[in-house]
Amino acid sequence: MHRFRTLVVTTAVILSLATMAVMSIASATPNNQPDITTAQTFTVLAHATNFKMINVDGEDIGPGDYLVERWALRRSGSPAGRLNDQCTINFNQTPSNPTALCLFAFTFSGKGEITAESSVVFAPAPEGFRPVPFDLPVTGGTGSYQNARGQIHVQFRDLADASFTFHLIP
């Protein structure tokens, strides 16, 4: 009888632990369903709010130096989220056109995140250098954008303002 009770209690404990494990895994699964079921195009405007340049060797800007930025995003005139990016200066194509390898994380309030990365070429501008228009390949997403693919066209309007046109496909 003692052996039977031990077996029943052990079985109940194992079943309880297995049930909790399954429920934990199920609750960790994202609730957001992908929104990208057909091709989508939309534009957000960005305004730079934070900027920091890190010069790793204390000399002129060159390979290995990097910058980090934060941008406020607006869509149809309303706040839409933020963009964080980091660019590392690479070897120049020409002395007047520095290049950088850049990572971008667009966080859209209540929707998810879209990530992208690319090489960016800069051209002389009145304020120093400004990126020439370029396209970013989308590398991933979360939440509503978890299945996003495509590209983002980037056009700088001035030093602190840019437009990002997303061309997303499922």
What does this protein structure show overall?
It is a single chain. By secondary structure, the chain is α+β, with helices and mostly antiparallel strands. The chain has a single domain (40-169), classed as Allene oxide cyclase-like (AOC barrel-like, Beta Barrel). 16% of the residues lie in helices and 54% in strands. It is built from one helix and nine strands. It has an eight-stranded antiparallel barrel. A hairpin with a 3-residue loop joins strand 4 (99-108) and strand 5 (112-125). The longest helix is centred in the first third of the chain and has 27 residues, at 2-28. It is elongated and about 50 Å long. The termini are far apart. Residues 4-30 have low confidence and may be disordered.
Any chance you could write out the topology, listing elements then pairs?
Blueprint: H1 2-28, E1 40-54, E2 66-75, E3 78-89, E4 99-108, E5 112-125, E6 128-131, E7 134-141, E8 149-158, E9 161-169
Antiparallel strand pairs: 1-2, 1-9, 2-3, 3-4, 4-5, 5-6, 5-7, 7-8, 8-9
Read across the widest sheet, the strand sequence of neighbours is 1-2-3-4-5-7-8-9
Record field, number of beta strands: 9
CATH architecture term? Beta Barrel
Helix content: 10-25%
Short description:
By secondary structure, the chain is α+β, with helices and mostly antiparallel strands. 16% of the residues lie in helices and 54% in strands.
